[in-house]
Amino acid sequence: MHLQCPMPKFDFDIITLGHGSGGLLTNKLLDTGVFDILKNETLDKRHDGAILNVEGPIAFSTDSFVISPTFFPGGDIGELAVNGTVNDVAMCGAIPKYLSLSFILEEGLPMTEFWDILVSIKYACEKAGVQVVTGDTKVVERGSGDKIFINTTGIGSMHPKANISIERIQAGDKIIVSHQIATHGMAILSVRKGLEFETTIQSDTTHLNDVVISLVEHFGADIKLLRDPTRGGLASTLNEIARDTQLGISLDNELIPINSQVAAACEILGLDPLYTANEGVFIAIVKPDSADAIVAEMRQFEKCSHAAIIGTVTEDYAGKVLTTNALGGKRVVSMQIGEQLPRIC
Amino acid sequence: MHLQCPMPKFDFDIITLGHGSGGLLTNKLLDTGVFDILKNETLDKRHDGAILNVEGPIAFSTDSFVISPTFFPGGDIGELAVNGTVNDVAMCGAIPKYLSLSFILEEGLPMTEFWDILVSIKYACEKAGVQVVTGDTKVVERGSGDKIFINTTGIGSMHPKANISIERIQAGDKIIVSHQIATHGMAILSVRKGLEFETTIQSDTTHLNDVVISLVEHFGADIKLLRDPTRGGLASTLNEIARDTQLGISLDNELIPINSQVAAACEILGLDPLYTANEGVFIAIVKPDSADAIVAEMRQFEKCSHAAIIGTVTEDYAGKVLTTNALGGKRVVSMQIGEQLPRIC
Questions:
Q1: Residue B250 domain-assigned (yes or no)
Q2: CATH number of the domain encompassing residue A207
């Protein structure tokens, strides 16, 4: 990627407080860096805000990214920040269109790292088909931040065939997971200071809007809810749904897809993959008749090649999530208490 | 304000890493705190994103706030974060409607401080007539942040009578400033560690959308550009305009309104008020015939009671900003180099 985007000459090798001043250095950083690499018609206007034409109702979602380390196996904070918000907008049943991009940089961040992150943002936006149209850059003194934090906020136009609403969920609906779980969390953990272990596990960060749009096109209202189980993992997301619907969720543990290397790493470290973060996975709660066809459609996409029906919504166990293991034993999966892996996204 | 919003009972006195886990503690903090105090129909749905109906073209703007100290004379980071983005949206000629709200909290932040900031956000939203409709909360370890950083991103609907565009500016247009300058910067500086000095200067943070809407209603296309000169002050904003229009800007130094206490503080500290940050001030570049009437309309608002015409757009000095002093001497006012006051917003 770097070959295609050589770093321009900046006056400084590192980010300084002056780059957040709103004055000359901020302008130089933006002119030579941000505006040039991310350029598009709206951003070029350089107003404090962007003027957009979006038809019909819109979806609007925000996320701040504080992941550590900034560069990790399979991605970096820039790519994650684009994909994360693109996916949150997509989970509303919307087509992501525009992003805002706001940096909080720590004084001393090497300019080369900032550049690599910008390049990564550029390519992630191209892949997901979205544009950065407005932004902000702040700099804090050494020790008041940690290299780089990024906020992205996204706007999408609602897909006319989408009818995503938690209130539509009823007993009998099927729960589908789009791919193998726990990959992102284990990829990050494998490079955490003090915990480094050898593995080839790569983060699953990716944009999911293409899959979601295809599903909504083909199955419309049969898709009742979409969620991406990032922080807190599958368990926390399903618990939120059980709580908000006051229905039960029954999972078959054997059906939940997981990469064998990820499963082994979880076991060694004593972590439950149900609570481990995902970035390129979503769950769909769907009308039972269409569940098999929806899984087949998902599997058309390489990034969803392990899609599977993993459970059912039930009248029993209202507000709870239960898993059944291979021997038929049931256990309640509660919401995550405390923090397994801080700064995972 | 606190009397009206007593703090609920939280399990912890401080923010812990678990509050950013996406699990139980995050949910408790949101249920008891954020969702309850900021509640509205859209936020109550608790999806990852909000579904909004906004008519016509929209304005979209983002800002991250890292101000230090968090609580300062005349306001706090919560109020600032609402007003700052509301004003950026308003400067597009739009009516601000919806905000996203994203926190990056440092482990150890006292829960009482977080609550005070939430209350402040609530009241600032009410005053500005906007709703928080979606959000995010992350927590970083002690020493990787500084108490609290806030990103707000705003959406507004374009006012049908607005025609704000830098391309419409021409020689002869008048430059109006809405109120006394440099107040925010000096209020913050007066409480900075190592610099504390006794003063009654209060930040001018306020929402300006009411003034802007009134002006656009009455003067429509006669208003060619609106900008709020925050970081970098009046000088940096006017330099950006001179650069982007390739016209000159001629200011009469004697006409720029400034509070006498603020002016004295700037003089003692050797700071130029033209580079000092504002929060409750905007500049308008307007058709010359309407300039006096626009100033009169602004002055109807207490927060714009010192509105004044401070200069003219010229063919001369293309790309530059000049001031004339009382003796007729001219000097070039360049864009701010380096950083006068880090973390001013």
A1: yes
A2: 3.90.650.10
Which residue, A158, A182, A197, sits at the end of a domain? Answer: A158
Q: Which two tokens stand for residue A210?
A: 């293409």
Looking at the complex, does the CB of residue B194 fall below 8 Å from at least one CB of chain A? no
- Global pTM? 0.96
Structure tokens at B119: 């209350």
Mark whether B89 and B205 lie in a shared domain. Answer: no
Number of domains observed in the structure of chain A: 2
B244–chain A Cβ distance below 8 A for any pair:
yes
Measure CA B115 to chain center.
22
**In terms of domains, do A102 and A84 share one?**
yes
A interface mutation test: which of B151, B224, B335 has the most A CBs within 10 A? B151
Q: Which of B22, B49, B61 sits opposite A230 (nearest CB)?
A: B22
CB contact under 8 A, A91 and B49: yes
Q: What is the pLDDT of residue A2?
A: 47
Q: Do the chains contact at A22 and B232, CB–CB below 8 Å?
A: yes
| Residue A206 CB partners (closer than 8 Å, separation 6+) | A83, A279, A280, A303
What is the distance between the alpha carbons of residues B307 and B299, in angstroms, rounded to a whole number? 6
- B72 assigned to some structural domain: yes
Task: Say yes or no: A212 contacts chain B, CB-CB below 8 A.
Answer: no
Measure CB to CB from residue A100 to each of B60, B104, B275 and give the nearest one.
B60
Q: Are B59 and B92 in contact (CB under 8 A)?
A: yes
Instruction: Establish if B223 belongs to a structural domain.
Output: yes
| pLDDT of B3 over the 70 cut | no
B260/B198 same-domain check: yes
B61 reaches A (C-beta below 8 A): yes
Cα angle B43, B48, B51 (rounded to 5 degrees) comes to 60
For the segment B180-221, what is each residue's pLDDT rounded down to a tens digit? Answer: 999 999 999 999 877 777 888 999 999 999 999 999 999 999
Best CA proximity match to A345, nearest among A227, A236, A231, A237: A231
Residues B151 and B171 placed together within one structural domain of the fold: no
Q: Are residues B219 and B301 in the same domain?
A: yes
Using a CB–CB cutoff of 8 Å, tell me whether B117 touches chain A: no
Kind and range of the H or E run holding A119: helix A111-128
Helix or strand run (H / E) with residue B85:
helix B77-90
**Per-position b or e across B240-269, b if 16+ CB within 10 A of its CB:** bbbbbbebbbbbbbeebbbbeebeebbeee
A3 CA: distance to closest CA in chain B (Å): 31
Q: Which residue range forms the structural domain that includes residue A89?
A: 17-158
